[in-house]
Design a protein that fits this description.
There is one protein chain. By secondary structure, the chain is an alpha/beta fold. Helices cover about 50% and strands about 10% of the residues. The strands form 4 sheets. A 5-stranded parallel beta sheet has the order 2-3-6-1-7. Strand 10 and strand 11 form a beta hairpin. The radius of gyration is 38 Å and the shape is flat. The chain starts with a helix and ends with a helix.
């Protein structure tokens, strides 16, 4: 059959040599009963090639011999065996009657296993038996059943890599891939993109009873250089969207940029409308979160420093009113000398000890030059509490107003035996 006739019959748009080669292979292998594996990215139109193969085979000449398409990735693991091979009444809880599986329904015809790479390994072994012996075993049955089915499968994953990774059986791969057909991605047939867009825009215009969207030369270049990770499916959805949203029927590249944004990270492209703000990349979002975390941490430290300063000033004998004035003063003015510096643990220890211990601790903590570092004061408070309770951690932790686990962690931190 002439390739142009095939394109017309199946509404295939494009003149790419890669596309023409894939169509030619499908037509040539169609009259045989060989298993065919169609490979290509999601959205390139692999199912059309299964129809070409079936319709141009001996199986496609009879209306009784059907083409059954099955999306293997959409069937739950627990029911896939029953879906493919059927089941007998009473074989499981909800099996209230016999049910034919897809293979039995497709008997005499063709079954198209889309996303065959998603099949679980247990089902791969059973599918191999069908290919080798032409037999299926419905769930709950004890006798195999003969079927005459041609298998055409498709996958958008690197099936050879899946075999190397142990996720796909090598023997099944060789049985499915007697003939392989590679359907090119849309970015591999750039010259076909304006033709496809014009077709999709015209279809929308017919349905909406309006004029179709047309592209300037720079808009065509923009579309041709766009990556189109979703392939034909993405291009069709885009053509439909812009046909509805744009009032002007002639659009240039500036208009396209409002809807299509090149994503330099190499992931899925970002599509957004003209009134929506561009989304942040993962890196920008992470940097913003880290920045907010640093701000919160710095604010927390400033609050703690303020609390400590006020506590030290009050314990040094300064009236509260003067403390408020002092804290509000510019940073260039020096605070009065601190006589009894103490952190939270030390303060609590002094307040909850008897007068003698408190006076002894206060005398020990007095400094005449600079206040001790917070960690050093915390360490001394812990040591004093342990000495008071003869090394008993539980009452020492109670005096310090911290949990025993926190005390244990701080003992390890400061190397206190």
């Amino acid at each position: 059959m002439d390739i142009q006739l095939v394109k017309t019959r199946y509404d295939i748009i494009g003149n790419s040599p890669l596309l023409n080669h894939a169509i030619e292979m499908a037509v040539r292998v169609a009259p045989t009963d060989m298993s065919v594996l169609i490979m290509g990215e999601s959205g390139v139109g692999k199912e059309i090639f299964s129809r070409i193969i079936h319709d141009n085979s001996n199986r496609g000449h009879s209306s009784k011999n059907r083409l059954i398409a099955v999306n293997c990735g959409a069937i739950p693991d627990g029911t896939i065996e029953s879906e493919l091979f059927g089941h007998k009444k009473g074989s499981f809880t909800s099996a209230d009657s016999d049910r034919k599986g897809y293979f039995e329904v497709a008997n005499g015809g063709t079954i198209f296993l889309d996303e065959v790479g998603e099949l679980p390994l247990s089902m791969q072994a059973k599918l191999l038996r069908v290919l080798e012996n032409g037999e299926i075993l419905p769930v709950g049955a004890s006798v195999p059943q003969k079927v005459d089915v041609r298998i055409v499968s498709a996958t958008n994953v690197d099936i050879e890599q899946a075999v190397r990774n142990g996720k796909f059986r090598q023997d099944l791969y060789y049985r499915l891939c007697q003939i392989s057909i590679k359907v090119p991605a849309l970015r591999e047939r750039k010259d076909d993109i304006p033709l496809l867009f014009r077709k999709f825009a015209a279809d929308v215009a017919d349905r909406q009873h309006t004029d179709p969207i047309r592209l300037t030369s720079d808009a065509k270049d923009y579309l041709m250089n766009y990556p189109w990770y979703g392939n034909i499916r993405e291009l069709k959805h885009f053509a439909e969207s812009i046909s509805v949203l744009e009032y002007e029927r002639m659009v240039d590249s500036d208009v396209l940029r409002k809807y299509l944004n090149y994503n330099t990270s190499g992931n899925m492209p970002t599509v957004y409308s003209s009134d929506s703000a561009p989304e942040m990349t993962d890196r920008e979002l992470l940097l913003r979160v880290l920045s907010m975390g640093n701000m919160i941490h710095e604010l927390h430290n400033e609050i703690n420093d303020l609390k400590t300063t006020i506590s030290e000033l009050v314990r040094g004998g300064m009236p509260v009113q003067h403390v408020q004035q002092t804290v509000a003063q510019p940073a260039t003015e020096q605070l009065p000398p601190i006589i009894h510096p103490a952190d939270d643990l030390a303060v609590h220890y002094i307040e909850n000890s008897n007068n003698t211990d408190a006076e002894e601790f206060a005398d020990t903590e007095v400094v005449e030059d600079e206040p001790l570092a917070l960690e050093e004061r915390e360490k001394r408070a812990i040591v004093r509490a342990l000495e008071k309770h003869h090394g008993n951690r539980k009452p020492a932790a109670a005096d310090l107003n911290i949990s025993e686990r926190t005390l244990y962690r701080k003992l390890k931190k400061y190397g206190i035996e």
